[in-house]
Here is the input.
Amino acid sequence: MTAAVRRMQPGDVEAVAAIEAVTFPVPWSQTAFAEDLEAPGRVWLVAEDAGEVVGYAGGWLLDDEAHVMNIAVAEEYRGRGLGRALLAALRARLAAAGARRITLEVRPDNTEAIALYESFEMHSVGVRANYYAETGEDAMIMWGDVAVSEAALDAPTPPGDTLLLAIETSCDETAAAVMRGGRELVANVVASQIDFHARFGGVVPEIASRKHTEAIVGVIAEAMERAGDALRELGDERAPAEGPLGFSALDAIAVTYGPGLVGALVVGLAYAKGLALATGRPLVGVNHLEGHIFANVLADEAVRPPLVALVVSGGHTSLVHMPEWGVYRTLGETLDDAAGEAFDKVAKVLGLGYPGGPVLSRMAAEGDPAAIDFPRAMMRSGDYAFSLSGLKTAVINHIRHEREAGRDIDIPDLAASFQAAIVDVQVAKAVRAVKETGARAFCLAGGVAANPALREALRDAIEPLGVHVSVPPMHLCTDNAAMIAAAAHYRYLRGERLGLDAEADPSLRLDTPQT
Ligand code: KG4
Ligand code: ZN
Here is the structure.
């Protein structure tokens, strides 16, 4: 699913009224929606999937109080968190317009809706008698504070003193970080399992989940220990006189819940849920890829939407447009292998070990990128799709051919030529995406962002367009929990929460609204 939440336009009214008609006994007409869209103080949003409107929500702002009018999702799209995403976005925008509390009416027997509103810290304050004209039923009135400041909406990481623990276990690093106020890392611990997987030439999922289980308690204890030390040094009164920071000092627990290896994700998620339950602190879910993008936000204050991000890791290669904070549209992605995967597979054939990216890029620095002419698949396909399996096969065939002919392979030349073929295509598509979307910033994200040739080529191609280019510092390129904390902080301020019944989603998409 590729749903995104955006403002309702006049052209959406027909589709919105069609959903309304089959959802409510006394539905609003198309004209009613069209008129309300123009009325003062209104915020109307739609959820869109592949260009089709599949849900909507509307709010009405009166002074500092906002009233949620309608919220509905097309029947076949229910149960995917769209209602929650619409409400989160509506709440954030009403808050940005000055709302301090939010109210709504709900049928007292609609337990599902009530649970959703309660998860946004809303509660029942009374009954509105004979509210539903068609049946004469009473409505339950709910309200809650909108704990989002205007400053929080202007910047994803405003100053503040929120203390957040973030946990990341989506692949082969067990990581935990504690962050203060959205930017200040007071602990950042990463336990890599790479050595355990290296002998198999890649990540073995069963080993990954077992190692996460073994490591997680120690990694989190270490993070809390370091956070205690750092906060004491900063004179933060939440730090105990000695020893680790207590869990009760935290404001929220954040965790990566997808995409990644399901058996690995569940380890972090189960721990985070347990901690949220034990401490009563809210749980915030983060998409791993959003985390990679936020490594840039964390390190570079100039990163702001509208932006384009190139996400290149061991599992992903995609170009993403972020028109505003928290809204993602995947422009295109790889049809087969991911860029990091291509590096890893080529290195494996050359017997260079796992992971292949770092060693191949070091070799490439010594070689001639023009030595061998490898294919640049889809370079001129006119879209944002990538295909890397052909390149991988071409490189492997070249290696075999040379070996059969009894010739020595010049590994630096081969690595440089292979890397150049990858870089050329990534740069061409990134430039096109920046131009076509009118983005003002560009971010490189994911493990392959550590590749020096790619970093340099993107800077050289995109900076002359007058677009700010951000590449994360090396230590934030590969998996870590600092980037998860940065993404979580911003979602936390927007009031977005993950339910304690949430499941790990191995194929969670960036375009999917937060659930
Ligand atoms: O983001 P990440 O740590 O894990 C995933 O989410 O997949 O990315 C790991 C990937 C591996 O495939 C690794 O080979 C690649 O990033 N990588 C590199 C470099 N450093 C790491 N690829 C190319 N050049 C590098 N210098
Ligand atoms: Zn990653």
Summary: The mean pLDDT is 90. The chain has three domains: 4-153, 163-295+480-493, 303-471. The CA atoms of residues 283 and 442 lie 30 Å apart.
